[in-house]
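Handout, section 4.2: multi-component inputs.
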Amino acid sequence: MNLVEKILAPRYEAHAHCDLFCGTYDPAQAAIEADSCLKIVKKYHDSDDEVFRARAIFIKEERAELVKQHLWILWTDFFEPKHVEEFPGLHDLFWRATKAAGAAKKSMSVEAQQEMIDLIGEVAEVFWATDKAKGAGVYPPS
Amino acid sequence: MNLVEKILAPRYEAHAHCDLFCGTYDPAQAAIEADSCLKIVKKYHDSDDEVFRARAIFIKEERAELVKQHLWILWTDFFEPKHVEEFPGLHDLFWRATKAAGAAKKSMSVEAQQEMIDLIGEVAEVFWATDKAKGAGVYPPS
Amino acid sequence: MNLVEKILAPRYEAHAHCDLFCGTYDPAQAAIEADSCLKIVKKYHDSDDEVFRARAIFIKEERAELVKQHLWILWTDFFEPKHVEEFPGLHDLFWRATKAAGAAKKSMSVEAQQEMIDLIGEVAEVFWATDKAKGAGVYPPS
Amino acid sequence: MNLVEKILAPRYEAHAHCDLFCGTYDPAQAAIEADSCLKIVKKYHDSDDEVFRARAIFIKEERAELVKQHLWILWTDFFEPKHVEEFPGLHDLFWRATKAAGAAKKSMSVEAQQEMIDLIGEVAEVFWATDKAKGAGVYPPS
Amino acid sequence: MNLVEKILAPRYEAHAHCDLFCGTYDPAQAAIEADSCLKIVKKYHDSDDEVFRARAIFIKEERAELVKQHLWILWTDFFEPKHVEEFPGLHDLFWRATKAAGAAKKSMSVEAQQEMIDLIGEVAEVFWATDKAKGAGVYPPS
Amino acid sequence: MNLVEKILAPRYEAHAHCDLFCGTYDPAQAAIEADSCLKIVKKYHDSDDEVFRARAIFIKEERAELVKQHLWILWTDFFEPKHVEEFPGLHDLFWRATKAAGAAKKSMSVEAQQEMIDLIGEVAEVFWATDKAKGAGVYPPS
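Output:
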């Protein structure tokens, strides 16, 4: 397995997000946007430039909205009834995670962004623990 | 480092895509959409359901468009003049990659999708070879 | 109360959907799009015009996507922990409703559209039964 | 007619907004967004939180844009030449209503939002006075 | 005036389309999309490739939608009451032009596209005949 | 050639931007948005209205984003390998132009907007110098 295959393999073999059941899903999409939110908020606090701060507020808004979208899609489209039996707290986890993304959207506090990221981490853990994700690829690596 | 940190770490520490210079960039975004295109095309050929096939055509169109977007953002926003010196073929690589994404958008052939994926692989290789990406995180893992 | 007030009153006094907590939410938004899906599907079956049928497929796709969006927003943004205690099946209802919208998106069957509409009806019933909705306006009228 | 049917009936039986001629149109869509604008503006004036106020400005912008969209669609797609004969002021009403929505978009004044809402009320009155709307459903209820 | 200035001058000095009153408006935006629709329709009829034809249908749909958007913006945002006095048929012209764009959206006939283009031509003629447009630049050239 | 044909002819006969290869491309699309950015920035500096200034920041953001989009599409979709041979600096020109659009997006300086406009001018010059554009229409007029 060359470097590129190594880098991309986990995502190349897995999961669906387009409502066709193409089979490509990945919590990385929510995580990338959430990471962006956190960095934006940090830069916002480091800046005293009025324009930069205004832009930070509305760009973070868009990024947090994307987090909500990616999470909602995972919740409704990837997970199946058997997963709810397997992970009884699944609905509640996604509700808290999307609410945390909503809170992160409304706030410029680092804590709100971190809370969102932590909950995406919990979502990712459940996601990768399903047979549906595991069976699909080489990930997570041993 | 727990499982979640391990799963998400590569992306959590790196790169920007929001035009604020938040610092979050990741070729994974293009790769996830491209993978979706390939799977859609395969399912298209396995199906003889008129509605499914029609949906496959326009959903793949949207996914390939996202590939183009993610690649263009990497090209213009992540890479800097010093990278062009370091990787003289950079512009040409991105031109071929986005053209391949355009071709993948227009076609239901598996080869066109694979060509796009291969070129994203090359982009990812260059991306992760930059100090900007490497310095930013723990990735690629040794 | 004049005619216009009568027509619009239920919606004018109530509920929020913009993530600012403006306070405007209304299951009517999902219901209008779902109704559109049903009508599109019926016209699709009544037509033998290739172009019309192709358009019906992708326009219905967009409308059903909007249904999912409106439902997700209600679920995450309108409802609060106390409502989950009050309506223990809330999460499951929204999961089935958004899954039904996904199924309606994928299918040109009248039944799939009706199933989505029925579940939006259940969502609306819960929505209007909350104090949060009731307290907000004159609706439902006696 | 049960509660759900009562709640949703007016909208379930009526009107089109998707350019397929699906037949689903409803001034409620513009009214819901306009109501949101008004509430956002009120909350803006009640707040002295810089971030909240910045968000209020651009979220209201999006909501007022949606008002314009919904009104334009009604004007071009729902109404027919016979309606212009029946309501000679139709074009002018929509022009003033969309201009009012543009003004509401630009301003944080309560009056500008109310002016937009009042004109949507007039639009709704004309809409529900057409045979096309009336014939389509049980609405307005006696 | 060098070549570039000559090419771009008419548009560089003129008109607004962003609801800020930035002052940049240009019927060229609608005309470019409408031209695209016409060419798509012609290629559709020249092709017997199922995928190409499906793509032609939904891409033309998006382009015709953009025509409607650009026309609506001109109508509501560029024109002022004094223009309605000056051009009494203004509202009706825009209504017919946006209806023609809706018809062009629904149809793969060349005639429907040409009808849309012709009406945009009439809109452009009225637009460039206003003092607001004329005073703004060097256009139309003598 | 009547006035309307004269006004619209250059754009009516030319170039493609929809990924179907419809054949309609025009640097005017980028130029119109860039011009809007410049005017927004000028009005921003002339105003001391907090709401107007906040709106100017995020509306200019959207317009500059559209500039990037239009330029990227020209680069990837209109130009072909033979053009790169003919204009060896093509890739670098587009890279600088899209980077300038990114800089214009981030800044409220008039200079940043002008730099973007100047580079679009250079792009237009190369565009109109190709046989592909020239052969397509009557433009540029003698």
